[in-house]
Design goal:
The protein is mainly alpha-helical. About 50% of the residues lie in helices and about 10% in strands. Strand 4 and strand 5 form a beta hairpin.
Length: about 270
């Protein structure tokens, strides 16, 4: 029995969503994917159907274009939502205590802030940021130092900060860990902060958000259009603004090479 037009359209919309769930698949590399992305941009009915299919799966369509493909985000309680425990398994986090999870959250926040430190970077679809393991580690450490000074000043004025104690513990836990230490076979020890950052950046690369470009500075990556769209959503988070407000990030040149201001001291 031949499928009706509505069934064919629904199948096409579902296929577009399925493409979006393959993080490294791009429209430029697949004719069918490219055609579906083009149809999404030209056919409002198909666009609405794609959003409906995604919503039924607990997904939200952030954007669809030829550069990034279909970029999706899981809604709360979606079966596709990456829980921290699931991330811990994928990133091979040995300890899954709350502090450990928050530390990895800080690393991802710093990575996004380094990749796109200015509003113009997020607005410019051609902008490509670069981040490295050493840069991210330096930024988190510098932010932790500044937050520690702020907390000390507040305590001296009998005006304790309103931040959750768990977050304060996470910042201090980060600074207490060594930045780098080698294992017997010469690899970066997993429980060092740079070891944690390295796993986080590799995880982002596996998700199609970063692309490795060299082994310099512990591993250097470039951002992708897919990551830019995700960070635009993250930029609405107050924690992202707070981190940028510390003025820990500096832009080295107009070409998009970024550094943390304390990177030369570590």
């Amino acid at each position: 029995m031949a499928l009706s037009h509505s069934s064919v359209d629904a199948e096409a919309a579902a296929r577009l969503v399925a493409f979006g769930m393959r993080p490294k698949q791009l429209p430029a590399r697949d004719v069918v994917y490219g055609d579906l992305v083009r149809r999404y941009g030209e056919d409002n009915a198909f666009k609405a159907l794609t959003h409906a299919v995604a919503a039924g799966l607990g997904l939200m369509v952030l954007e669809v274009n030829q550069q990034a493909g279909a970029v999706l985000a899981a809604t709360d309680e979606s079966v596709f939502e990456i829980k921290m425990d699931s991330y811990a398994r994928q990133a091979k986090i040995r300890e899954r205590r709350e502090t450990e999870k928050v530390l990895h959250g800080l690393i991802h926040l710093a990575t996004a802030a380094l990749g796109y430190p200015r509003p113009d970077d997020l607005a410019n679809d051609t902008y490509i940021g670069r981040v490295s393991v050493e840069q991210v580690d330096a930024m988190v450490r510098e932010a932790a130092r500044m937050l520690d000074e702020r907390a000390a000043a507040a305590e001296a004025n009998n005006d304790p900060l309103a931040d959750a104690p768990e977050l304060e513990q996470a910042w201090r836990a980060y600074t207490r860990r060594p930045a780098a230490a080698a294992t017997k076979d010469g690899r970066l020890a997993a429980d060092t902060t740079r070891g944690m950052v390295s796993r986080a950046l590799r995880f982002l690369a596996d998700q199609g958000f970063l692309v490795p470009v060299s082994d310099e500075q512990g591993g250097t990556y470039r951002t992708t259009p897919r990551y830019q769209i995700q960070v635009r959503e993250l930029a609405a988070d107050a924690a992202f603004d707070d981190l940028l407000a510390l003025d820990v990030v500096a832009v080295a040149n107009a070409g998009g090479t970024l550094r943390a201001t304390s990177s030369d001291t570590l």
